[in-house]
Model the fold of this input.
Amino acid sequence: MNVVVCVKQIPDPAAPAALDPGTKTLVRTGKLIMDDSDNYGVEMALQLAAGEGDEVTLVSMAPGGETSGLRTGLAMGAARAILISDDALAGSDALGTAKVLAAAIRRANPDLVVMATESTDGYTGTLPVQVAELLGFPSVTFAKAIAVDGGTVKVERQTEAGFDEVVCPMPAVVTVTAGVVEPRYPSFKGIMAAKSKPVDNLTIADLGIDAAQVGAAGSRQEITDVSEAEARGSGEIVVDEGDGAQRVVAFLEQLKVI
Amino acid sequence: MAIDKVWVLAEAGDAGPTPITLELLTEARAVAGTVEAVAWGADTASMAAALGEYGATTVHDVGDLGGALPGVPVAAAMAALIEGGTAPDAIFFPASYDGRDVAGRLSVRLDRPVLTNVTGLVAGDGSLASQHPLFGGSHIVTARFTGPGPAIFVIRAKSFVAEPAGGGAAQVVAAPAPELGAVNGAKLVERHAEERSGPKLDEAAVVVSGGRGLGDAANYALIEELAKLLHGAAGASRAIVDAGWVPYSHQVGQTGKTVKPTVYIACGISGATQHLVGMKGSKNIVAINKDREAPIFSVADLGIVGDVHKVLPALIEALKAKT
Done:
C-alpha cells in the first residue's frame, strides 16, 4: 500500500510572527520546521503502512528547496519525499496550493492520502478536500481513528455530538486531528538514515502546471488592510495568598453567575 | 444593498437549523437583497419555517444523501444550480465539519478560491470584503476576492448575532445532486453520541478550560467538576488536546471552537495566540496561572497568579459549600 502524507514546512510557531508590510503576507524567512499538526498524520501513515511492500511518501510545497521539515518526517520512517519548490509559487492561495499538491500526489499513485485537518500557520482548513476533489477521490475529514481493510478505509470521524463510523473506498483522502496517535520521536538511526533518503525536487514545469494558475499571479484574492484590533483591557491581577478561590467566587457572585 | 443574492449553507441541528445557520442568515439579510438557503436531509421541509423566519425566501433542497457524507453531493448540487444560471454573488458557509467539506469541494468544481476563518464582513459597493483575526486576534486582516464570483466565504461561529426577521416559511425547491460515482463513496455507517451532562461548549454561559498547567491528564477531572458546578461546559487548550488528554471536540481556539460565554475561566492556560483567538470575545475572563507573565493575563478581567492545583480544589470546595 502506498500512503502519501502532505507535510507543511512552516516557520517555528514559537518564534514571533510578522507580516511583510508590502505584500501583507506572512514572513517566511529563517529555518522552517515540520508543522506539529503533521506529526499525527505521519505517525498514522506509518502505522497503517507497516506491512511488507508498504511505503509512505511525503509531499510538501515550500520555498527555496527547503527540506529541514521533510527530514523530520523521513527520520520518523517515511521512505521518500516529493518537494515542489518554485519561485512562481510565492503568494499561492489554498486552491493554487491544492492544484500543485494534487499534481505531485498523482505521481506517487497513492492508495491513501493522509493530511492534518489544517495547518498551524495558515489554518484555511479547506485544502485537503480541495486536493481530494482535484484527484477525484472521496474524502473523510476530522478522523480520530483510521483502519484499512482491503480496498476500504474505515474512519471514526469527529462530530459535534461524538463520532461517526464512516467507510470509504480507496484511493481516498483522510484528514486527522491532532492528538489521535502518539507521534514517535525519530531515533538516532532514523535521523542518520533520513539524510540519504530520496527527495524528488520538482518545479511546476515538471508537473505541467501553468505559472499563471498559481502563486500571486493565480491568486484571486488579496489583503487590502491590516489593522490593530481593539485591545481588551486587562483587569485586576492578584497573587494568590490563599484567598484566590474566594476572589473568584466573589467575582462570579458579582456577575450573578452563582 | 451591497450585493444582490447570498446563499447560506443551512445545517440541521438537534432541533431545526444550527445556531450558526441563523447567524449567517441574519448577516446575509444585512448585505444582500435576496437570501436563499441550501440544505440537505430527508426532512428539509421541517426547517423551512425557521429558515424563512431568519430571512431565507427559498431553500434549495439537495434531499436525502443515502448515507453519503455531505461534502461531495451537496457541492455537486450547488455547482449544478450555478452552472444552470442561478448563481448567487456570495455563498456563506459555516466553519463546521461539513461546511468546510462542502466549501472546499465547491471551490474546485467552480474553480473559485475561498476565504476562510471569516469573523466579519464589510459591505462595499457591489462587493463584500471579509475580516479575519490575525496573531490571536490582536490584528484584523481585511481581504477581498479579485476574480469573478460567486465569492465563497467560510465563516466562524459567533461572528454575528442571530435575529429573526419575521418572514414566512421559505419555499422548498428540490435541487438533487447529479450522478457522482466513486468520488461520492464515503458513507456513514453509524453515529455515536458521547455522553454530555451539561450544555454544549459553544452555547454554554460558563466555560471552564484547562491547559498544560494542570500537569497531568487526570487533573482534567477538576475542570469537569468545576464546569458542572457552574452549569457550564469544559474546554481545553490545544496543548492538552495534542497530548491526547481530551478529545478534539473540547478544543477552544484557532483550530478549535470559538466561544463567547458570560464567563470564561482559564486554568493553567498560558494564552498562546492560538487559544486567545477562540475565547477573547468572552464577556468576562478569569485566568488562573502560576506565571505572572503569561499572555492570558493580558485579556483577563480577574487574574489569579497562583497554583491551579491549590486554587481549583479550593474553588470547587467553596462552590459546593454554597449549594
About this structure: Residues 94-108 of chain A form the longest helix (15 residues). The two ends of chain A are 57 Å apart (CA to CA).
